[in-house]
Design a protein that fits this description.
This protein is of the alpha+beta class and 98 residues long. Helices cover 50% and strands 22% of the residues. It has one domain: Glutaredoxin (3-Layer(aba) Sandwich). It binds FE2/S2 (inorganic) cluster.
Length: 98
């Protein structure tokens, strides 16, 4: 289980952290990852000046815009998770699964 934490402190909120959470949620639903990725909000991560702040497990991520955050989320969270699900499925198929 991966935990994605989005800062919802006032500075990040003004930059669009609410939209990020809404879009991340939609992406998780679209890809059926709701039970693999946990999404949560956090108070100020004390990196306000840097941009929109969030993290993937313990890895801090800073994005300059909502769009950039969504692209990073797809690249670092959605794709690796869907790839591993797909490879598990094909392994199961190799062994007569499905
Ligand atoms: S409000 Fe997000 S890091 Fe401070």
């Amino acid at each position: 289980m991966t935990t994605v934490t989005v800062c919802v402190g006032s500075s990040c909120h003004i930059k669009g952290s609410r939209q990020i959470i809404v879009r991340f949620n939609e992406l998780l639903k679209e890809h059926g990852l709701e039970d693999k990725i946990e999404l949560q909000g956090s108070f100020c991560m004390e990196r306000c000046g840097e941009g929109l702040n969030w993290q993937i497990d313990e890895e801090p991520v800073t994005s300059n815009s909502v769009e950039e955050a969504i692209l990073t989320f797809i690249e670092k969270v959605v794709q690796p998770s869907t790839d591993s699900a797909a490879s598990k499925r094909s392994k199961a198929a190799d062994h007569g699964g499905e």
